[in-house]
Write a structure and sequence with these properties.
The two termini are about 20 Å apart. Helix 2 (about 25-55) packs antiparallel against helix 6 and helix 4 (about 85-95) packs across helix 5. This protein has nine helices and no strands. With about 220 residues, the chain is mainly alpha-helical. The protein is globular, with a radius of gyration of 19 Å. It has helices at about 1-20, 25-55, 55-75, 85-95, 100-125, 130-160, 165-180, 185-200, 205-220.
Length: about 220
């Protein structure tokens, strides 16, 4: 799964940075990230489906959707391959370019919090009395809300720069992390899950834009 995810992300970001104009790159990256985060948020929804309809039918449906996505990608014209860049040059550029390091920091911030959310929030909701269907519904609402908001965050980042979205995302994430363990009711936990689906990933949009622009400035392109 990790190998497949790496192939998907490298290909997708290369595609985006090669095709999107710089003034709209944040918006396009936000759209791409919203798709990824929606997929992650649908994990507990898939668990609810497996609990209701069985593991085999639920995962078979995911496999069919994955094959359809692969066919769509295969039939869509893609940008040509990027020039090969030696690996030592990539690491050297990363050490010389603060933008690259800062971008990597913010890119890593989101999955760290998001992994904790999708693991611990369902356990908390279950402890407060919610079943698989209700937990899945909470994450489904979170995924729909996140899919709508993230392209707007990317557009905001294009207009105002990296600072305001990063600050808002970090402060919002910290507030949600502090509130989640103390929420006394399941409905409050579910509300925090919906908000976390956006806040945890806000730094990812400007962080990715920061990284790609730092890579271009360092002369390593999409390497």
């Amino acid at each position: 799964a990790g190998f497949g995810s790496a192939l998907n992300w490298v290909s997708a970001f290369t595609w985006i940075t090669a095709r999107a104009p710089e003034e709209r790159r944040g918006e396009m990256i936000g759209t791409l990230i919203s798709g990824a985060v929606v997929g992650a948020l649908l994990g507990p929804v898939l668990g609810a489906a497996a609990a209701s309809f069985g593991v085999a039918p639920s995962f078979a449906l995911v496999a069919v959707l994955a094959l359809a996505a692969a066919l769509w990608a295969a039939l869509t014209p893609a940008p040509g391959p990027s020039p090969s860049v030696p690996l030592h040059r990539v690491f050297g550029a990363a050490l010389r370019q603060p933008r690259l390091l800062a971008g990597l920091l913010f890119i890593g911030f989101a999955p760290l919090l998001f992994g904790a959310l999708t693991t611990l929030a369902p356990l908390r909701l279950s402890a407060l009395g919610w079943g698989a269907a209700a937990i899945g519904a909470a994450f489904l609402v979170a995924s729909l809300f996140e899919a709508f908001v993230h392209p707007l965050i990317g557009r905001w980042s294009d207009r105002v720069g990296y600072g305001p979205p990063l600050l808002a995302g970090i402060l919002g994430s910290l507030a949600i992390v502090l509130a989640l363990p103390f929420a006394p009711y399941a409905i409050l936990v579910a509300l925090l899950v919906v908000l976390a689906g956006v806040a945890f990933n806000v730094p990812l949009v400007p962080g990715t834009s920061l990284f790609t622009r730092g890579a271009e400035k360092a002369g390593i392109g999409n390497a």
